[in-house]
Give the backbone structure.
Amino acid sequence: MKKETRQFIHDVMTLAIPVGFQSLINNLVNMIDGIMIGQLGEACISAVSVSGTFLWLADTFIMGISGGAAIIMAQDYGKGEMKRIKRLFSFVLILASCVALVFFTLMTLFPAQILRIYSSMPTIIAPGVSYMKYLRFSMALNMISMSIVAMLRSVRSVKLGLYNSM
């Protein structure tokens, strides 16, 4: 095998292995969460699922913002424009914090109304409101963390995301 090919494979594995382990950890946490919630009954499973739909919407906003910024940051990283990367990183972090604050506020002030968009069953809305009281805190921190990890990946810093997931 050529030296260039070996170096390429090494570079890819250096990036892919931490990202793969990070995904594995995230999926294991979701699986354990599902098992724990499953012990509480069908209404709680449905409430968590409905609440998760709103969380998915928040995650989609953040991944769109971070993904777009990551593309620009990767290009700037290739050009060696570190000053521009730092400005973009700061901008995206502020934007992610603002989006997290909006979703946190909505989940704080209107949890039942949000859940009624997805379901009209009181047996789902009541535990869903209770779940959202806790979910809002982790959601806000997770949104900011996701944006940081996505942007760090674009500048070949993948280990921090893995450590964050652990």
